[in-house]
């Protein structure tokens, strides 16, 4: 029985009231039926004036009556509860009425005078509940007296009657529950039918409107025949075929499976039938318009009758996910490539300083020997060989540094269009005559911030690489354009920041790059030319462009269309006019100025001193910065130029120059170093515009640099 069913739900209160009144008249006791909490349900029967008009009309008296009613009405398995009332001490009794173990009402009797109660005690209670004592005692004397034995017999009769009422209530409850259950069953059946129809309708709407999925049911027989018994309507958008065509011929759908993926799908289905378990398989489908989509097929087999298997399945379009996976794989490959480049760059940077310091005296002393007028022709050839070998070794170190993004760059405002046009003449002399060179320069300006000589190196490397791809001749096109690169464009070798870029492309009509080696072309020492190539051409391009915060891409179709390699440089916001490369002046490279030479490598110090003295300079030498400061303070004459190594023990080149300027205000400086760019930058050197020459340097490069500084 539900908790909300009450006494009044089970009985007609008027009938119960009549029964209660007749019981009170027959027994001569007061009677009332209340809730378990003592709240009246029926009207009082045969109540005496003491209770109804006096005690229950006071707050405390009424509260005591309710408490007493609740106690004597508690359910009991052994008989009625008989005790004196908490208000006035009259005899009371009660029996609980229960239904299915739930206490729903109390039937209470009483208001019989207790013969042991004195009028003095009653007068005290009247005072306690704040009522008139005399009126209270008069009403008390009106209460009928009854022996306790007779009262207990009446209480036993009440207990039996209450149990009968409980039994009738139980029957009423069961009858009501049965009627309600029948009504509910009929109502639920009707409701379930309506919900089933609505559910089928909703399911049909959901299935037919799944954005990337299609539900199907297909029967297959042992001889290979298939028949779709159900297929959702959105097959029209997913597979671009109609439901009717697939229902008429299952092969309309199965024929879309990519030939390369079909054997694996058939094998997966066969394994699922053997184990009678669900399978999940991914395959490509070729749509009628030629477009390829990836679908994930999930299906479970059921055996309906012998030789017939029913497949319940769903086909989900995972084309976008597959593309995302490909992009992720590309990004991971780029990360591995970047880590590999970083490792090689660290190696190059680590050995560059020592190699450059060793190459400096080799090249320098060889050039000094070459200047000796009495050298025989045979010796000159050998000396030139030493010099050429030294420069090749220097260039190799520079290429490694460029690849590892460790070389020192001289960034200036530049127009890439002008760089390409001014470099054309040299390119035409370099490229074979059977290759036609065409330039397609953008109509708009191409402002970049770059090291112009390094850009020329990039163009030369790309052109030479294109030439090697056309052994029988062909066409070579150099073009510039202004483009916008979106974020995470993974067709590029380096993922760039989004924004505007200047694009430089070198396109050839050669043999193209095989797909299986495409990911390796920017790796150092990887070459398809055998012993003829160093494998540093494109690797150097990669490093230089990365150092310029740019990116690289390869557009390749193996065959007659050849290859296009493009580099992208960020558009510069610098409004300064583009700088042109200064042509070196080969005259007037001598001088009589005083130069302070500071170098901690003894061989480089002695070689450089000889080169300077050979051109007429007065040379002061120091083995470190502290010695250099000492000379600055002691030398009374003018010192025109400080030629100093950058990284030295005790006092580095920059700090040396700052201290020297405090003494010799007009002193100019030329820094030199064999270290890579990241080491020098870490030392806080070489702000923009600083005079610098990279070791190992040629004698002419040193003399030109010195004259450029001193002739200002």
Short précis:
The chain is α+β, with helices and mostly antiparallel strands.
Report on the architecture of this protein.
With 712 residues, this protein is an alpha+beta fold. It has five domains: 7-177, 2-Layer Sandwich (Beta-Lactamase); 213-317, PAS domain (Beta-Lactamase, 2-Layer Sandwich), CATH 3.30.450.20; 341-403; 412-570, Histidine kinase-like ATPase, C-terminal domain (Heat Shock Protein 90, 2-Layer Sandwich), CATH 3.30.565.10; 594-710, 3-Layer(aba) Sandwich (Rossmann fold), CATH 3.40.50.2300. The protein is 45% helix and 21% strand. It contains 21 helices and 21 strands. A five-stranded antiparallel β-sheet has the order 6-5-9-8-7. A hairpin with a 2-residue loop joins strand 3 (91-99) and strand 4 (102-112). It is elongated.
- What is CATH's topology name of the largest domain? Beta-Lactamase
Give me the CATH architecture of the largest domain, please: 2-Layer Sandwich
- Shape estimate: elongated
Instruction: Output the structural class.
Output: alpha+beta
Strand order of the largest sheet: 6-5-9-8-7
CATH class term of the largest domain: Alpha Beta
Biggest sheet, in brief? 5 strands, antiparallel
Q: Indicate the percent of residues in helices.
A: 40-55%
Total beta strand runs: 21
Which regions are unreliable across 5 or more consecutive residues at pLDDT < 50?
A: none
Could you tell me the radius of gyration in angstroms?
A: 54 Å
Strand content: 15-25%
Q: Please tell me the total number of domains.
A: 5
Count of helical segments? 21
Mean pLDDT: 80
Distance between the termini: 110 Å
């Amino acid at each position: 029985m539900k908790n909300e069913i009450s006494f009044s739900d089970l009985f007609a209160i008027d009938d119960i009231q009549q029964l209660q009144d007749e019981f009170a008249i027959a027994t001569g006791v007061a009677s009332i039926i209340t809730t378990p909490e003592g709240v009246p349900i029926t009207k009082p029967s045969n109540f005496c004036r003491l209770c109804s008009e006096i005690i229950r009309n006071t707050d405390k008296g009424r509260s005591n009556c309710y408490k007493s009613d609740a106690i004597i009405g508690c359910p009991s398995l052994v008989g009625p509860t008989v005790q004196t009332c908490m208000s006035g001490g009259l005899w009371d009794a009660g029996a609980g009425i229960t239904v299915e173990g739930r206490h729903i009402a109390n039937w209470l009797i009483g208001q019989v005078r207790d013969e042991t109660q004195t009028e003095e005690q009653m007068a005290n209670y009247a005072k306690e509940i704040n009522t008139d004592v005399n009126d209270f005692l008069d009403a008390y004397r009106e209460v009928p007296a009854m022996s306790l034995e007779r009262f207990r017999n009446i209480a036993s009769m009440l207990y039996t009657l209450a149990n009968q009422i409980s039994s009738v209530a139980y029957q009423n409850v069961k009858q009501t529950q049965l009627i309600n259950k029948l009504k509910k069953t009929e109502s639920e059946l009707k409701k379930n039918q309506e919900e089933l129809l609505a559910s089928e309708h909703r399911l049909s709407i959901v299935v037919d409107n799944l954005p990337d999925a299609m539900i199907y049911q297909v029967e297959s027989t042992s001889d290979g025949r298939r028949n779709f018994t159900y297929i959702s309507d959105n097959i029209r958008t997913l597979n671009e075929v109609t439901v009717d065509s697939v229902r008429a011929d299952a092969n309309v759908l199965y024929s879309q499976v990519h030939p390369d993926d079909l054997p694996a799908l058939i094998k997966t289905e066969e394994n699922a039938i053997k184990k009678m378990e669900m399978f999940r398989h991914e395959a490509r489908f070729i749509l009628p318009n030629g477009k390829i989509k990836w679908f994930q097929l999930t299906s479970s087999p059921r055996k309906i009758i012998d030789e017939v298997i029913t497949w319940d399945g769903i086909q989900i379009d995972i084309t976008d996910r597959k593309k995302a996976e490909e992009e992720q794989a590309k990004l991971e490959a780029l990360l591995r490539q970047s880590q590999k480049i970083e490792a090689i760059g660290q190696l190059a940077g680590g050995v560059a300083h020592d190699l450059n310091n060793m190459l400096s005296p080799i090249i320098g002393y060889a050039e000094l020997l070459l200047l000796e007028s009495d050298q025989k022709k045979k010796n000159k050839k050998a000396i030139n060989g030493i010099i050429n070998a030294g420069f090749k070794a220097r260039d190799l170190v520079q290429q490694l540094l460029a690849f590892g993004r460790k070389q020192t760059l001289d960034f200036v405002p530049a127009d890439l269009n002008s760089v390409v046009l001014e470099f054309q003449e040299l390119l035409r002399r370099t490229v074979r005559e059977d290759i036609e060179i065409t330039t397609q320069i953008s109509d708009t300006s191409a402002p970049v911030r770059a090291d112009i000589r390094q850009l020329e190196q990039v163009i030369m490397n790309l052109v030479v690489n294109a030439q090697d791809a056309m052994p029988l001749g062909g066409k070579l096109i150099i073009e510039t354009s202004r483009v916008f690169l979106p974020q995470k464009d993974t067709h590029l070798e380096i993922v760039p920041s989004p924004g505007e870029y200047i694009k430089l492309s070198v396109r050839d009509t050669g043999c193209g790059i095989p797909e299986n080696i495409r990911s390796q072309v920017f790796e150092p020492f990887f070459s398809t030319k055998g012993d003829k190539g160093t494998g540093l051409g494109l690797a150097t391009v990669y490093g230089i462009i990365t150092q310029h915060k740019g990116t690289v891409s390869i557009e390749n179709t193996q065959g007659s269309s050849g290859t296009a390699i493009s580099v992208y440089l960020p558009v510069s916001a610098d409004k300064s006019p583009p700088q042109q490369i200064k042509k070196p002046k080969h005259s007037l490279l001598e001088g009589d100025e005083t130069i302070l030479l500071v170098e901690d490598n003894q061989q480089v110090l002695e070689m450089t001193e000889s080169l300077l003295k050979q051109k007429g300079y007065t040379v002061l030498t120091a083995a470190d910065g502290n010695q250099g400061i000492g000379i600055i303070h002691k030398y009374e004459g003018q010192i025109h130029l400080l030629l100093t190594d950058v990284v030295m023990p005790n006092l580095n080149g920059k700090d040396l120059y700052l201290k020297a300027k405090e003494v010799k205000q007009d002193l100019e400086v030329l820094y030199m170093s064999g270290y890579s760019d990241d080491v020098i930058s870490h030392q806080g050197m070489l702000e923009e515009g600083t005079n610098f020459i990279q070791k190992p340097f040629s004698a002419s490069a040193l003399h030109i640099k010195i004259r450029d500084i001193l002739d200002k």
